[in-house]
Design goal:
The protein has helices spanning 4-25, 29-36, 40-47, 55-64, 72-78. By secondary structure, it is an all-alpha fold. It has one domain: 434 Repressor (Amino-terminal Domain), CATH 1.10.260. Helix 2 (29-36) packs across helix 3 (40-47). The radius of gyration is 12 Å and the shape is globular.
């Protein structure tokens, strides 16, 4: 089970990763939504730190954005000190 602090950190980290990568690519949320087969609202909720997408969508987001993770555990493991 993920602690409240880890969940908060995960939401914030995912939010930052999505925003930073979209900016690097010069792309908008709508592009990421189309590339991952979901809605703009779903991507916006993740980008704003409101939710963590379901595992399949999260994996697609990581893939499309060129991030080296397959799931939330890998993202947390890659930044262990920040998860506290």
């Amino acid at each position: 089970m993920i602690s409240i602090n880890s969940r908060r950190w995960s939401n914030q980290t995912l939010s930052r990763l999505i925003s930073d990568r979209l900016e690097e690519f010069g792309k908008k949320v709508g592009w990421l939504a189309r590339e991952t087969g979901t809605t703009t609202a779903t991507i916006n909720r993740a980008r704003n730190g409101k939710t963590i997408p379901r595992p399949e969508l999260l994996r697609d987001i990581f893939r499309v954005l060129g991030l080296p993770y397959n799931n939330l555990k890998e993202m947390i493991a890659d930044n262990p000190l920040e998860a506290r």
